Amino acid sequence: MISAITSFGQGSDPQWVQDYAWGGDSLDVLVDVLEVEDGTSLTLLSGGHMISPSSSEVSSGSNGSYDFWVIHSDSSGNVLWDVTFGGDSTEFFSQIVATDDGYLLAGSSISVPSGNKSSGTNGGYDYWIVKIDKNGTKVWDRNYGGSQDDILLSAFGLNNGNFLLGGNSISNKSGSKSTDSYGGNDFWVLIVDASGEIVWDLTVGGDQEDVLTSLFEDDGVFLGGYSNSDISGTKSDNSYGGYDYWILKLDELNGQVKWDSTYGGAQDDFLDVLLPDVHSNAIIATGSTSSGSGSGKSSTTYGASDYWVLKIDSAGAVAWDLTVGGTGNDVLTDAISSPEGAVIIGGYSNSGASGNKSAGNNGGYDYWIVKVDTRGLVYWEKNYGGLQDDTLQSLDMRCDRGLYLGGHSASGISGDRTFANRGYEDYWVVRLDVETVPKFEDNDHCFGTMIRFFDDSQIWPDTWTWDFGDPLSGVKGSNERNPVHQFSAPGEYSVTMTVKEGCQKDTSVTQILNVWENKIVGKAQLGSVQIICIGQELELENDPEVSLPDDVTYFWGGGETTPKITVDSAGFYSLALTSGQCTATDTVEIAPCPIIYVPNAFSPNEGVDGFNTEWGFKGIGIVEFEMYVYDRWGLLIYYAEHIDDWWDGTYKGRNVQQDVYVYKAFYQGIASNQQITVGTVTLIR
User: Fold this and answer.
1) How many C-beta neighbours within 10 Å does residue 77 have?
2) What are 613-668's pLDDT values in tens digits?
3) Using alpha carbons only, what angle is made at residue 521 by residues 519 and 522, rounded to the nearest 5 degrees?
4) What secondary structure letter does DSSP report for 161?
């Protein structure tokens, strides 16, 4: 029998490798980064909004105020192309969504058709999406909105080629918005097809402010954001105080709300990113909190604002929550899942080492990232920045399990930033590598038994290739994560595990395993179950017909070290035989003699005194039982096939008369023959 507890490796600590900076001579705000495959190489797409004229890396200046600005760079940070999209006013960028033939750029715009913006505005800010090909050329653009402000904050690509768009809207029914606002800003969600045509839209919210910040699809559409509404509109829970996390699940086909839940403390709690859990139906909610413990929050706070992470099961219940932060201001802006099920959260922090933050600070705000393991505990944390403010906005896990950290920076060459500042703020990306450290758990063991190998790598590989170094066994290796093998002979074996993690090269580790000669395998034999009766003793020993090695030692479950032991009670008794490095074990059950007890009278008058209202057998060691009760004329009036089933003095639902009744019972204990008892019972009314 082979048993073990499998744990997930949480990965090595990331290491700073290099940083990249791009910008013009004014303000450039990076919002999202994404590793992309460009032919045979892996490159980086960085998107945000900027107000810079043509300068430095900005090849085409702003068309008005802020414009979308997207940079495609190689792994060394060299710009392959950059594009600007916008009209005569302001565009705010939110997210890049990869598609089979290019990318969708999502954000908001208040511009009329101008510059390279072809769609107008319905009034105030509208959702604005731009479809580009892999060379950055615009394919089409669309805007969606009502007569007031509609701010797009999150986008998600669906498997059928449609796009899920979400943000907040203060518009009533108008333009492309089909329903009125419930009060203040509401969540506004759309599904649009691959050409940008609306499939359906939905407004959900309460009578105050409801701001959607994150969404995804996974057996339904999940929405997350923050709200200070009480029960009203489509919101079913009151606020705990200030803004709270608000999470909903929708039917993907029609947008019908399946459930919604509110999470928070007495102060403000702002949800930023909602994620599916990698290995379960749970979801991970991440954001920033100013609330201490109490109300709907169990973890404390450390400063003005901290990171707050919750794991929520499929029924909406909180499995655990974690607050991390220092005594300053820590604002979470992004979160991503790791393959083993952990979550990496990131944002910007001006806290030094304080609270439960151990990383320091380089000056102003720094990038601060934290890995939270599958149990809700901090696994590692890292801080990166220069002397001025560095504001992390985006995390992306590369195919080799390394990380890109993207945001905007006002720092010059200082701390972790190696580039001079181009203007007021630049795009700034930090590349972190995570070393692959394969290892596996094994133990020297005895010949003739199975061994299970456990991958204990500090990574989550995509593939495993094992070579047991045992060609005579006929089983060269395995591709399972935790394989089982039985070696063909005693001796020393070189076992190799090769793992591939993402797009990393294969990495191998070889360990030496000793398989000892086993002279005791299969020789622990205590026999089959035995019976013991009250006052009786039994002598237990290994089967005397089995030949044992001369160096054998004995160890019984009760601590005895003699070849034989005497027992006087029922139970399970185990014996371990050891010879050299190897041990064989066996266990025998000692069962009690079957004993039964039965009263000779009962009074089924429950409404009178409540005593002895049912009649039947009690017993010890009974595994099979049948009972028949007859009246004086031989009519069967009760039957039971379990010893716990008792007669209540009725026949076909009606009380029988006071009389003497005959019973016959058949019973059997473990390893005993069937026995019969016959008698009478008096029913008294």
Assistant:
1) 17
2) 999 999 888 889 999 999 999 999 999 999 999 999 999 999 999 999 999 999 99
3) 135
4) S
Evaluated on CA atoms 381, 382, 387, 388, the torsion sign reads: negative
Q: Domains along the chain?
A: 121-263 (2.40.128.630), 440-516 (2.60.40.10), 530-592 (2.60.40.10), 595-683 (2.60.40)
- What Cα–Cα distance (Å) separates residue 39 from each residue in 44, 204, 462, 599, 652? 13, 42, 22, 87, 82
Is pLDDT of 2 > 70? no
Going by C-alpha positions, the residue among 358, 414, 356, 405 that lies closest to residue 385 is 414
The partner residues of 306 in beta bridges, in order of sequence, read 289
In the structure, how many helices (H) and strands (E) does the chain have?
A: 0, 52
Place of tokens 């473990």: 670
Q: C-alpha 149: how far from its chain's center?
A: 36
Cα distance between residue 574 and residue 578, in whole Å? 13
Nearest in space to 309 (alpha carbons), one of 335, 290, 329, 278 = 335
Pairing of strands 538-541, 595-597: unpaired
State the Cα–Cα distance between residues 235 and 203, nearest whole angstrom: 11
Assess whether pLDDT exceeds 50 at residue 15.
Answer: yes
Q: What distance in Å separates the CA atoms of residue 408 and residue 429, rounded to the nearest whole number?
A: 8
Q: Provide the terminal-to-terminal Cα distance of the chain, rounded to the nearest Å.
A: 58
> How many Cα neighbours within 13 Å face the side chain of 595?
8
The pLDDT tens digits for 139-154 are 999 999 999 999 999 9
Quick one: which of 243, 337, 334, 464 has its CA closest to 32? 334
The mean-pLDDT minimum among 3-7, 407-411, 557-561, 562-566 falls in 3-7
DSSP state of 397: E
Give the contacts of 26 (CB within 8 A, at least 6 positions apart).
Answer: 50, 51, 52, 53, 423, 424
Per-residue pLDDT of 449-498, as tens digits, reads 899 999 887 667 788 999 999 999 989 899 999 999 999 999 999 999 99
d(CA 449, CA 587): 18
Contact 241, 291 (CB under 8 A): yes
